[in-house]
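Batch manifest, entry 17 of 40.
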Amino acid sequence: MVAATHARVLLDQAMYPPARPQSQPMDKVDPRAAIYGTISIGALLSAESVHQETYAATVGAVTITLLIYVLIHAYSDYTGERLASGEALKLGGLARTLVSEGWLLVGAGIPLVALLVCWGLDTSLSTAVTVAVWTSAAMVLILEVVSGVRAGESGRDLAFQTAAGALFGLLVILLRIVLH
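Output type: structure tokens
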């Protein structure tokens, strides 16, 4: 009986993680979402087949994907909180979560802006997608450097943290190379 109760508690903890602490408001800057957005859009663009697409189709696909990411993250985060707390769906709560997840737009928007600038400069779609993918990779690296400097790291510790960002950036670039 004790083992069954313990198993149930563990299962409940796994299925219903604790709600976001009150000390961390949902509308606070969320760099996790920005990093996720940057990497996700970089990966999406890496898989883009520029020989079969147009600028409009590529920008449209990125924009729709961005909206889907934000909605999915907001809904899943808010639903997880509601399951943990036993609350009903409230539009205000969902709206606060949407604002928090809006940082995905910031992270993913930077590679999208690079794509749009290239379109405005009338570069080939292939070049524009490559620029956007490299922009995504560079953003991850920059965010890691900024994070390390803000944490007071230097030397080997800062280099290690920077290498972690470089690894994720390189994976996005590698995906582009492998698929094309």
